[in-house]
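FORM 7B: Structural annotation worksheet

SECTION A. Query
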Amino acid sequence: MAAQITGVPGAELKLAVVKAPGGHKIELLEYLAPPDRKQHVDLRPCDVGSAHVALTIDDLDTILEKIAASGWKPAGKPQTLESGPNAGKRVVYVRDPDGTTIEFMEMAP
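SECTION B. Predicted structure
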């Protein structure tokens, strides 16, 4: 079925669904096959084909500690926005071991 949905012959994958308030869902996929798939692509956030998801979280420092244990790394240092409607919000991009970018945003106190 995965091959039919994705258009990738021989596709096998693991799937996890993250449920968010308001009925939103995010699917996280890990492809296990086909064996000729690229194992790692080092795209920068500005490169064609790069995509990211932004998640609002409560405690950025705790999240960064927890994900570090699983091989996730910040792309830079967390920054606090100083002006505009998002002043006080803390933001950082992180990359999982496969190179996928996720943005974490901690709302202003």
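SECTION C. Observations
The chain has a mean pLDDT of 90. The first strand starts at residue 12 and ends at 19.

SECTION D. Sign-off
Analyst initials: ____
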